[in-house]
Design goal:
alpha/beta, Arginase, Chain A, 8-stranded parallel beta sheet, two-stranded antiparallel sheet
């Protein structure tokens, strides 16, 4: 993908189409090749962009405006339909370019497996990286029905790569017993059901460290975000998720990259999920890109 020309499609609101000047780069990872239930998240990035036009540019939560942040929308990474391995390689190549140029990667999924090559590449460039993971699901499987490239495996992959003690999961309410046992045995922290309060306890311990944040939209209760591939009741409210984003913003933690995944617009005719995702991204950009 070239960065010397403007993306010729929809862009996230207030994107500056000058790559060289940008602090952060937004990009889509339109892949849902490995989902185990409902496909459709490959259409998430474009719809999030399209509905962003309805956003206010000012955040009353953070007292910042999108004019205060310089970010470039590179569009969607062209991924070969059905080829998970090659798609992950292309994502890794894309992120390597961003790392070389000193940009903060801001990803939109796509299924959660797309976060794996991003986190791995960021970890290769930032010593002592920590991962903050918000999700309904553990995503700690080694494989799903014999397939190691699955949207149920990215957190296990990054935990094994950088060490389980460097991965912090929040809002988890679904997973195999073996996944929870593995996390406990290996020192990985999992906060069940809640996000905000356990997150506040962890943030002071991450001061001074580079942090990558990955958020699966299904951490929200389906009442707040029905447009996702694997809905799971009992989740947090959009208000709590916003407060969690702001807690990170106000903590002084050094966020070096982040993503929001698993938005599947086809399952939400009201577009509540896409609009929520768009606002969440606005707050993440304003709060985490300094």
């Amino acid at each position: 993908m070239r960065f010397d020309e403007a993306y010729s499609g929809n862009v996230f609101i207030k994107s500056n189409q000058n790559y060289e000047e940008a602090q952060a780069v937004i990009y889509g990872m339109p892949m849902d090749w490995t989902v185990s239930y409902r496909p459709g998240s490959r259409f998430g990035p474009q719809r999030i962009r399209e509905v962003s036009i309805g956003l206010e540019e000012y955040s009353p939560y953070l007292d910042r405006d999108l004019d205060d942040v310089n970010y470039f929308d590179a569009g969607d990474i062209p991924l070969p339909f059905g080829n998970a391995a090659k798609s992950l390689d292309l994502i890794a190549d894309f992120i390597s370019k961003l790392m070389q140029d000193g940009k903060i990667p801001v990803g939109m999924g796509g299924e959660h497996l797309v976060s794996w090559p991003v986190m791995k590449t960021v970890a290769d460039n930032y010593k002592d990286l920590a991962i903050i993971h918000m999700d309904a699901h553990t995503d700690l499987r080694v494989e799903y029905e014999g397939e190691p490239l699955s949207h149920s495996t990215p957190i296990r992959k990054i935990a094994e790569y950088i060490g389980p003690k460097n991965v912090y999961s929040f809002g988890i309410r679904s997973g195999m017993k073996e996944e929870f046992d593995w996390a406990k045995e290996n020192g990985m922290q999992i906060a069940k059901f809640e996000v905000l309060e356990p997150l506040k306890e962890v943030l002071p311990t991450l001061a001074g460290r580079p942090v990558y944040v990955t958020i699966d939209i299904d951490v929200l209760d389906p009442a707040h975000a029905p447009g996702t591939g694997t809905v799971d009741c009992g989740g947090i409210t959009s208000r709590e998720l916003l407060a969690s984003i702001h807690a990170i913003a106000n903590s002084g933690v050094n966020v070096v990259g982040f993503d929001l995944v698993e938005v599947a617009p086809i399952y939400d005719s009201s577009e509540q999920t896409a609009n929520t995702a768009s606002k969440l991204l606005r707050e993440m950009i304003l709060g985490w890109v300094k």
